[in-house]
Design goal:
single chain, 2 helices, about 40% strand
């Protein structure tokens, strides 16, 4: 399924993708950028909180926690 475009929030546990774009403006987009969610970066879904939100991802060797709504603004490509 390489080359399939989807939202970061749609990744399943253990799936990997590459960031294509971070959509939106404001604090959420700035926070995502500061966490290393940048175009070209590889992202892997790591864990999910017991109630499903937030979700942990591995980005650039670090584990980050992102709300599902914010992850929906990140376009990725499976790979």
């Amino acid at each position: 399924m390489e080359g399939v475009a989807m939202k970061l929030s749609e990744l399943r546990y253990g799936q990997r993708g590459r960031v294509v774009a971070v959509h939106g403006e404001g604090e959420s987009a700035v926070r995502l950028h500061s966490l290393g969610v940048l175009p070209g970066r590889e992202v892997t879904r790591a864990n999910t909180a017991p109630l499903g939100d937030p979700v942990a991802y591995l980005v650039g060797g670090q584990k980050i926690s992102v709300r599902v709504a914010d992850a929906g603004a990140v376009e990725i490509e499976l790979g």
